[in-house]
């Protein structure tokens, strides 16, 4: 039987986790997380790690599997996830993958372009420049070194800008020169499912989720991570805003409003990314799971 990867994507807080569990239970399969924020053991509330009952409902992989002190990038994930999927397919023709990190999803389903290894000190220096001079400084630097990358990558995402710059500086060649836009051959067929809703509904769900995170102890989680705030893993929505609160720069009310605003912006970027992929079949987030299963079966046959 053909080996199948069911990939579930969509904006944050849309209900991807719940759907992934229903599909995994139906196909008696296991779940690969492609959410890059959920890899870290020290972060759970602010990254919306599935609750214990959700983790118990179906076996999950790549949930809190590494430490914030470990440099773990999308290339590492591609290698590890492909290896895990291969092992899971030896037991069952179906594997479910879920996550809103577009580049990480693409790494598994279509593969990444090859980039040479560069001196790790370059990234360290760029991180310092980001902290001291801000994202605009790095954006201008990238614009000078690689205009094509400047015009095509997620320019508001510091991690993407720093990644492009470290390749430009470390190889003395444009980051864009390493992009081939050719897909890798995979041993499985991917069926991509997208969940969506009206923007107002997505934004309401995001705002409510942030409130629940605060109620569940996000402040204590972030406070415990203050000594590690300069690590790349913590340069993420929900943490960087509360660092400003603990520094005394923002009120708690304003920090929470910034988390909501930045999460809404993140959701918008997610949708922009995924809408470029014509292979994704979109469903309203309230669609009955049986309808989605019928579609998946039609694609298998």
UniProtKB/TrEMBL annotation:
<comment type="function">
    <text>Catalyzes the transfer of a dimethylallyl group onto the adenine at position 37 in tRNAs that read codons beginning with uridine, leading to the formation of N6-(dimethylallyl)adenosine (i(6)A).</text>
</comment>
<comment type="subunit">
    <text>Monomer.</text>
</comment>
<keyword id="KW-0547">Nucleotide-binding</keyword>
<keyword id="KW-0819">tRNA processing</keyword>
<feature type="region of interest" description="Interaction with substrate tRNA">
    <location>
        <begin position="159"/>
        <end position="163"/>
    </location>
</feature>
<feature type="binding site">
    <location>
        <begin position="12"/>
        <end position="17"/>
    </location>
    <ligand>
        <name>substrate</name>
    </ligand>
</feature>
<feature type="site" description="Interaction with substrate tRNA">
    <location>
        <position position="101"/>
    </location>
</feature>
<keyword id="KW-0460">Magnesium</keyword>
<dbReference type="InterPro" id="IPR018022">
    <property type="entry name" value="IPT"/>
</dbReference>
<feature type="binding site">
    <location>
        <begin position="10"/>
        <end position="17"/>
    </location>
    <ligand>
        <name>ATP</name>
    </ligand>
</feature>
<keyword id="KW-0808">Transferase</keyword>
<dbReference type="Pfam" id="PF01715">
    <property type="entry name" value="IPPT"/>
</dbReference>
<keyword id="KW-0067">ATP-binding</keyword>
<dbReference type="GO" id="GO:0052381">
    <property type="term" value="F:tRNA dimethylallyltransferase activity"/>
</dbReference>
<feature type="region of interest" description="Interaction with substrate tRNA">
    <location>
        <begin position="35"/>
        <end position="38"/>
    </location>
</feature>
<feature type="site" description="Interaction with substrate tRNA">
    <location>
        <position position="123"/>
    </location>
</feature>
<dbReference type="InterPro" id="IPR039657">
    <property type="entry name" value="Dimethylallyltransferase"/>
</dbReference>
<comment type="similarity">
    <text>Belongs to the IPP transferase family.</text>
</comment>
<protein>
    <recommendedName>
        <fullName>tRNA dimethylallyltransferase</fullName>
        <ecNumber>2.5.1.75</ecNumber>
    </recommendedName>
</protein>
<dbReference type="InterPro" id="IPR027417">
    <property type="entry name" value="P-loop_NTPase"/>
</dbReference>
């Amino acid at each position: 039987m053909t080996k199948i990867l069911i990939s579930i994507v969509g904006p944050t807080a849309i209900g991807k986790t719940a759907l992934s569990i229903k599909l995994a239970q139906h196909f008696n399969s296991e779940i690969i997380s492609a959410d890059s924020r959920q890899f870290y053991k020290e972060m759970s509330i602010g990254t919306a790690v599935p609750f214990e009952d959700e983790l118990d409902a179906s076996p999950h992989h790549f949930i809190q599997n590494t430490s914030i002190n470990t440099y773990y990038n999308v290339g590492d994930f591609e290698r590890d996830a492909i290896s895990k999927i291969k092992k899971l397919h030896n037991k069952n023709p179906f594997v479910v993958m879920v996550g809103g990190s577009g580049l990480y999803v693409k790494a598994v389903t279509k593969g990444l372009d090859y980039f040479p290894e560069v001196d790790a000190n370059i990234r360290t220096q760029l991180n310092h420049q980001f902290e001291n001079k801000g994202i605009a400084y790095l954006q201008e630097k990238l614009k000078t070194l690689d205009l094509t990358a400047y015009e095509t990558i997620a320019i508001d995402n510091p991690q993407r800008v720093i990644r492009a710059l470290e390749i430009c500086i470390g190889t003395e060649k444009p980051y864009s020169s390493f992009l081939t836009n050719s897909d890798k051959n995979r041993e499985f067929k991917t069926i991509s499912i997208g969940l969506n809703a009206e923007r107002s509904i997505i934004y309401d769900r995001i705002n409510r989720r942030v409130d629940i995170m605060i109620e569940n102890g996000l402040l204590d989680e972030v406070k415990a991570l203050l000594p590690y705030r300069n690590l790349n893993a913590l340069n993420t929505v929900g943490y960087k805003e509360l660092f400003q609160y603990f520094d005394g720069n923002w009120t708690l009310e304003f920090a929470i409003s910034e988390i909501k605003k930045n999460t809404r912006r993140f959701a918008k970027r997610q949708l922009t990314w995924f809408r470029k992929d014509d292979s994704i079949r979109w469903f309203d987030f309230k669609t009955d799971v049986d309808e989605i299963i019928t579609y998946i079966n039609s694609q298998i046959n």
